[in-house]
């Protein structure tokens, strides 16, 4: 009897400590913290810029604590009075990618970044943790914030028209995607609306998105630019656009990104969102996607549909590239550390990945032959590396365009859809 009572108390304490009742801690709107991420390949620091009060919170009101631990960074919100973790979310960013470039070995640079979370009712401690080279988190930045402070900015950040592209229900239990447009002029407004519809349909091309369409809302922000197109430094083409997107990021021609996170988040603040997709009015091949940071894709390339889905795999699913690219720095994944992405492994901790999804009859490593064409296995060549890194399937959208996500990527995406829609 005594034993049973003890167990009961223990387990009820456990579930109590993990449960955060949204209304006890948060208002149904967002707090936004803007900061500069500054440093070089060896060191980095965060400097606070400003704090804002934004009208919408697009995320779950149940799943407030991150359960995936994807990304190299983790934003944590601590209730100051009780010292309780009341919100956390993993992410990656452009600064971290830049750190692996040769430029970062000799130059200090500053990148603008933003974190949003539901608006706290009481004083909080805002923290950013970062993984070290061994994959362990350490605290990079910490600041106390009083949500009642008169210095929290309450002005409307931007003045764009917004529109519904797909609406299936209340944002708190849907995945909300904000489509932000770059390089569309006033004369191209009609094209902007047509592209919004076209790209929303692209999302539901593959499993598991197509079976879960009713779990998504897609919002459009009618961002109008002064000039049409985007910056293409390699061709000396420069356009004055609202979100300042550009090709040739880190000297890679097809790497289409934006560093103008302030203007991007100002535009996104006009709708509820979990994810931001920047659609760039260009015919050139390219895109980019960083976990819980942004997705970027050009609108009019013949491969746009597949680039769109591939990049969303990075930004939404936390998926790694499954292809080999010898041109990329071998410092991209630190040696001896299991990558955090769910769809690649260097066998440091394969138990944590898809090992239990491989049939006992499949050899590991798995030969890339017809016999195993539809088998989950352990295929060498992934995460840009030809040797020592493995992927789960011969074909996947994260390896080559137009083939759909592999079963392991599908499963990972599905888990994230479930997280946002609780
Ligand atoms: Zn895959």
Highest CATH level, the class of the largest domain: Alpha Beta
Count all strands and give the number: 17
What structural category do the secondary elements indicate? Answer: alpha+beta
Number of domains: 3
Distinct small-molecule ligands in the complex: zinc ion
**Can you tell me the CATH superfamily of the largest domain?**
Collagenase (Catalytic Domain)
Oligomer: single chain
CATH topology of the largest domain: Collagenase (Catalytic Domain)
Spatial arrangement of strands, main beta sheet: 8-10-9-13-15-14
Q: State the helical fraction.
A: 10-25%
Average the pLDDT over all residues and give the rounded result: 95
Helix-strand sequence? HHEEEEHHEEEEEHEEEHEEEHEEH
β-strand percent reads: 25-35%
Number of helices: 8
Question: What is the CA-based Rg, rounded?
Answer: 22 Å
- Uncertain spans: 1-17
The first-to-last residue Cα distance is 36 Å
Annotated CATH architecture of the largest domain: 3-Layer(aba) Sandwich
Describe the overall structure:
The protein has 422 residues and is α+β, with helices and mostly antiparallel strands. The chain folds into three domains: 18-145, Immunoglobulin-like; 161-315, 3-Layer(aba) Sandwich (Collagenase (Catalytic Domain)); 323-329 and 364-395, no CATH class. Helix content is 19%, strand content 28%. The protein has helices at 2-18, 22-25, 94-98, 103-106, 189-203, 261-268, 304-315, 407-420, and strands at 26-39, 44-54, 73-79, 84-91, 109-120, 124-131, 137-145, 161-166, 175-182, 216-222, 245-246, 257-258, 275-280, 287-290, 294-298, 379-382, 385-391. Strands 8-10-9-13-15-14 form a six-stranded mixed sheet, sandwiched between helices. A four-stranded antiparallel sheet has the order 4-3-6-7, with no helix packed on it. The chain is globular and about 65 Å long. The protein starts with a helix and ends with a helix. 44% of the residues are buried. The model is unreliable at 1-17 (pLDDT under 50). Residues 322, 343, 392-393, 396, 398, 405-406, 408-409 line the site of zinc ion (ZN).
